[in-house]
Amino acid sequence: MGAGIVALPLSASTLLAADGDYVVNSGFPARGIYFSPVKAISQTYNSVGSYWEVTSGDPNSLMFQVRGSKDGFNFSEWLDVSADNHEGTVQPAQARIYGTLQILDTPYVQFRLDIPEGMTVKLAGLTFIDTNSGPNLAEVPVPALPSGTPNKPYIISRADWGANEALRYNGKNVKWPPEYRTIKAIIVHHSETSNVYNADPSVEVRSIYRYHAITQGWGDIGYNYLIDWKGNIYEGRYGGDDVVAGHAYQYNYGSIGICLIGSFKSVKTTDAQLASLVKLIAWKAASKNLNPNGKTFLVDKTINVVSGHRDVINTSCPGNGAYGMLVDCRSKVAAVLSGAAVSKTYNVDLKSITFTPTTVKLGDTVKVEAVVTNTGTLPIETQDPAPGFIYEEGQTYETLEMIKQNGKFRLAIDFSNNSGISHPYRWGLGKALNPGETATITGYVKMRTVRQVDMFGGVIQEYVKYFEDNVGTTRIRTIMSGPNRTDRAPSRAADPNVRHFNETGHNLGYAFRKYWEENGGLALFGYPLTEEFTEESDTEKGKSFVVQYFQRNRFEFHPEFKGTKNEVLLGLLGVKLTTGRNFPKVPAVPSTDTKVYFEQTGHTLGGIFYTYWKANGSLPIFGYPISEEFKEKNPDDGKTYTVQYFERNRFEHHPENKGTQYEVLLGLLGTALCRTKGWVK
Questions:
Q1: Using an 8 Å Cβ cutoff, are 525 and 550 in contact?
Q2: 501: which DSSP letter?
Q3: What distance in Å separates the CA atoms of residue 464 and residue 280, rounded to the nearest whole number?
């Protein structure tokens, strides 16, 4: 299998067993051989994947094997599905490791582990994949492959091999959005699946797709192309030409990953596979202006333009049988290209892109600088605006009437969570670039909003395609030009009504101290992040209040309520920080002792969150729920929790603390709001 995906966070991979998986989570010895019980499989399937987790030891050193039986007594040979690092995986302890996919369809299975000393196995499991249903390749018309030219060979489309595009989505969102880079190298892999010469090999392609997309949580297949034993070439990763795939970690960027279906540790590829590999590489080499016998610098090393997986990652892939034929493959590709007419192609290489400074004051500009080289064989033309142009944040090339001109090239910049026009900031290259020429493009964006965004860019040929995108991602913080309210303050603890917190360097006194101490203190509000100061209200336009920020909330002093319980009120930070997010309301349900429906916001509150809400101040402290429970990544620790938003805070469920006072923790919304103001990083 291909290596893990850089374009998609590995945390996206699910750590839960799918329905129908065979999972064992106890009874493993401290070391030595473990045999699982024989498992009768009631479902139909045609391939089996494996996975395991350990709590100590190197998970890659576990030997994992599986075998099948038709009657539960007479078994096949053991099939090795261990993580032999042909993926080059470097996984920490407690991470889930995946074994190689095997073509197997017997009604009984068993697995065996060889556990080395010092390893503690948490669980081991098998997942069963049924991809028998789908288009039959015999029914798909396959035109003859062109001979002796670098023209595009016939490639079986995703639709024709039966890719279920729903697997790429999580609800309405694409799990692994496409991004693009200039192609510099071609990396050859093997799938390490069993050498089963199916009459219809598309079944195996669908199995690999599901194993990558669902079992391993990537959202798509990891290769750009696959070639079966018959020589059929399949479209892999969704996104078309130059899309970044997931086959070689950081070396995904700038390469095409081609998978030869099968295991070639000791056997050679079929003649049909090699012939199709030559035709596929010849087409790509011609269209990308690559020398098949040449060298190229990719990320951090110089490699052959046509390389094996082992040339970039510490792995045995694509197996000795396939790796040994790459010399012959390069020669055959060169022979094809030598008899072809010179290809006329567009191609660019975005060598670098930088954004400076990374922290800017409101009203100042971010400088964008990019270096672009024409690596094609045709001149590339460009358009306005010229380098040096300054955009105001909120403006776009369209609002300034610098509309797209068909086929012209521009530098294109976008930013995270952009809900408007894609890549709104675009600059021309300054001049037309002939093949081999390089240009440096500089542009500016004047920042008008206090916030934090990730900026990135690419090169676009208008109305044609992005040649590169998502390059140079840089976090830009726009801060207030006034004082930093979180700067440490001198202690005022000489005043008996004031308490100084050395942890954050701030004081807490009088009405705010009284409220803090009487309503939960550190557990509910955290440490003070600022001193008291006067700030315009978020919710009452034209009014200002004395406020103080804490890690989990903001206190507001209301003198009009002096002497009452409302003299100090909490800010609506949950509402403030979810502005623009859509939390659909749910139908009303009868309230019970364990679950309540709030018609005021159209949301329910139940379970451990309801218990916590009632026990720690309920409505005055937290407000009404403004969402249902859902999974969300915590921006502070990068982990995913079950959360629920309230008007004044966010609850997080921590099952690892079950039965303690820390099973529910409050979000650091005060810190988050200070971050949006540029006071904290």
A1: yes
A2: E
A3: 23
Interacting residues of 206 by C-beta distance below 8 A, sequence separation 6+: 131, 134, 161, 162, 163, 164
Contact (Cβ atoms closer than 8 angstroms) between residue 579 and residue 572: no
| CA 472 vs CA 26, 181, 250, 416, 579: distances in Å | 46, 12, 14, 13, 28
DSSP reduced 3-state for 417? coil
Q: Which residues of the chain have pLDDT under 70?
A: 1-19, 84-94, 137-149, 198, 340-343
Q: Are 139 and 40 spatial neighbours (Cβ–Cβ below 8 Å)? A: no
CA-nearest of 268, 381, 288, 387 to 328 is 268
Q: Which two tokens stand for residue 82?
A: 């261990």
Helices (H), 462-599: 510-518, 521-525, 573-577
Asked whether the beta carbons of 641 and 634 are under 8 A apart, the reply is yes
Residue whose tokens read 């991004």? 179
What is the per-residue pLDDT across 587-642, written as a single tens digit (0 to 9) for each?
Answer: 999 999 999 999 999 999 999 999 999 999 999 999 999 999 999 888 777 788 89
**C-alpha 209: how far from its chain's center?**
17
Cβ pair 220, 150 in contact under 8 A: no
Of 59, 58, 78, 60, the C-alpha closest to 68 is 78
CB 257 within 8 A of CB 315: no
Supply the DSSP symbol for 249: G
Supply φ then ψ for residue 669, to 5 degrees.
-75, -30
Query: In this predicted model, what pLDDT tens digit does every residue of 34-77 receive, in sequence order?
Result: 999 999 988 888 889 899 999 888 888 889 999 999 998 999 88
Instruction: Return the SS3 of 384.
Output: coil
**Alpha-carbon gap, residue 411 to 443, rounded angstroms:** 9
Structural domains of the chain, with CATH:
10-129 (2.60.120.1050), 137-338 (3.40.80.10), 348-479 (2.60.40.10), 498-571 (no CATH), 595-676 (no CATH)
Percent of the chain at pLDDT exceeding 90 = 46
* 319-324-328-334 Cα dihedral, nearest 10 degrees: 60
Residue 124 phi/psi, 5-degree rounding, is -145, 140
Pairing of strands 640-645, 650-653: antiparallel
Characterize the bridge pairing of strands 108-115 and 63-69.
Answer: antiparallel
For the record, the structure tokens of 489 come out as 């303050």
Are 233 and 280 a contacting pair, CB within 8 Å?
yes
Tell me the two tokens of residue 454: 């990730």
- C-alpha span between 571 and 569 (Å, rounded): 7
pLDDT value of position 141: 55
Backbone φ and ψ for 332, nearest 5 degrees, come out as: -65, -40
* 244, amino acid identity: V
What pLDDT is stored for residue 10 in this prediction?
31
Collect all residues with Cβ–Cβ distance below 8 Å to 147 and sequence separation of at least 6. Answer: none
The gap between the terminal CA atoms of the chain, to the nearest Å, is 39
Cβ atoms of 306 and 288 within 8 Å: the answer is no
Reported as a single tens digit per residue, the pLDDT across 497-547 is: 999 999 999 999 999 999 999 999 999 999 999 999 998 887 777 788 999
